[in-house]
Write a structure and sequence with these properties.
about 70 residues; mainly alpha
């Protein structure tokens, strides 16, 4: 997978970031994406946003379970 071309669409950047964070990328694609993240602040930011969203969802879920 060529991650340099994902910048053609913001939704694609977000989609790949979600797949990465959720562990849905194939191992070879994951390694390629990890290398891409080292040089791409756009994708790095997308991953950070997804990680923050997942963190908030977990916190909300924990809060609901404790009620």
């Amino acid at each position: 997978m060529d991650f340099d071309n994902i910048h053609e669409s913001n939704s694609r950047v977000e989609e790949v970031a979600e797949e990465f964070v959720l562990g849905r990328l194939a191992p070879d694609h994951r390694l390629t994406y990890e290398k891409h993240l080292l040089t791409c602040p756009t994708c790095e930011s997308a991953v950070e946003r997804v990680l923050e969203f997942v963190k908030l969802l977990r916190k909300a879920n924990e809060s609901e379970l404790s009620e």
